[in-house]
Design goal:
Bound molecules: manganese (II) ion
Radius of gyration: 20 Å
Structural class: alpha/beta
CATH superfamily of the largest domain: inorganic pyrophosphatase (n-terminal core)
CATH topology of the largest domain: inorganic pyrophosphatase (n-terminal core)
Length: about 325
Amino acid sequence: MGYGPVIDFISKHDKFILTTHETPDGDALGSEYSMLCALRKLGKVARIFNADPAPQKFTFVDKTGEFVVLENEKQLPEDLGEYVLIILDVNDINNIGQIAGLVLPKVKNYFIIDHHDSEHDTLNEDLIQKSASSTAEILYQIFQEMKIDIDFDMAQALFMAIVFDTGSFIYPKTTALTFEIAHDLVVKGVNPNQIYSNVYESNSTPSLILMSKIMSTLELEYNNHVAIQTMDKQDIIASGARYEESDQFINIPLKSRDIKVSIFFKENLEGLKRCSMRSKGDIDVAIIAQSYGGGGHKTAAGFKCPRTFESVKEEILEKLKIYFDQESK
Ligand SMILES: [Mn+2]
């Protein structure tokens, strides 16, 4: 099934660094953790270094504190040149933060395993399976192919990743295979309710306060088909919440029948401005994200905001016009 190159890559190297995209999500972290366990089972040396911290709701899978944020070069192994890098859940090296400068040029080689659309140069051998619901779904199949025993900790990390990236088994790329894998992981001891509870019922009170503030910024455009929310760093500071706790706010407007596109402009505590977009049906927000140097999937994409929220908002609305003009005819 095309896993030859990745199996070869894993087999012929001994020391691995794993990383993923900036602001890592459930799939990014669950995939990293299960791959870390798999590599160690094979007798390999493996470490995780990420650009950003893991949101607390995902860290229950990581009992040994493996999600390390790379702050400076001193944290890296002295024999970094002996290592190879596996990049998970992202195929754009512009989106792995400081790993691109501090690790990538110094390791022997690298390999990408991902399921996002790619607009960037990737190596032929890289494993990019766009039809997969999640990176974890790809990893499960690699582990099966390599006959690596998936123990409870790995199963839990994989299940968390799949639950997160499929919106609890409902997003468009959820297939019978996704359920087959989930079935096997439950057979291995995963408790779906416990995963749900950790990921979706563990928000802090400050995050609830932040949510109420951000909901109050809601703007509706195109006859209530497009929702826009905005969060600046003062909102975060005033609420006492952590930036990562805002990552689900974008999904709230989509619960309304009329809303076809949800746009979330957000600024982090360092002042970095990002725009996230979600859509339903045939509306392709990845194209819009790509036009700003970002990326993602047709129904979930984002980019770093190059100008003020207000001016980018106007541009995005203009780009969305084709969808809503046609509809009103
Ligand atoms: Mn993913």
